[in-house]
Amino acid sequence: MRQSEVHALACEICGRLPHPRRTRLTLAKLAAVFPVELALHALVLHLELPYLAAVAILTITTTILVIWVVEPGAMRYLARWLHGPELSHRRRLDSAELLWRIRVRLDNTPGRLELLAKQLAYRHANILTVHVHHLEDGVLDELVVSTPADVGPPRLSTAIDRAGGRAVGIWPASALTLVDGQTRALGLAARVATDPEELPLVIAELLGAQYVSAVEPELSTSGTVLEIETMTFVRAGDPFTPAEIARAYRLSDLARLAARQR
Hints:
By secondary structure, this protein is of the alpha+beta class. The protein contains 10 helices and 7 strands.
């Protein structure tokens, strides 16, 4: 562990390190104070000073040395030991597998998806979920993969190219991406049924797009545009699939029915 590893634990806003565990902090302060206290007591006893003078000298000198010199230096010197548990957790997090969401266009021919899976496997990328969207000129596969920490978008793009695919996009993902799609869609549908006014925001969440309101028409040109009735949605660099468009229209139908029953 290097000192730079300790500084990496500092808060990005205030710059402070996390508070060490109480036991380690107590032991570190004891290690810093004990030699100073021992040396000063030995010196005062050796000089045989009057009682009040000895107490005053010990109190003032120890306080100054400990607060301004010894303790700050000891905290810096023992920082790696003080924050050892946090550093251990950070190393485990840094070495943990990463999640990526991949959209790739493939020719709709037998064996293409298998070839893509093999190319990803060569790079130790494990496919966790896959959804196939059929298009007029092929298929659009949406995958969530986990990879070692040293495998990033460049290596994933190489795998896609060698499988004959065309990457639409590669984005970092989280565990939330692995939530069952049907369960997520049902939850969004429940929101619309409860409050039809939520429809634009729900569709935007479903599609991972931006809802463009009537007061922001200039945003409608910055990406792939989808218009559903009077609503406009934009998604940069990621085209809408027929399946996604169909789901959005079904939510719109649900909102219309829910509004009529109110």
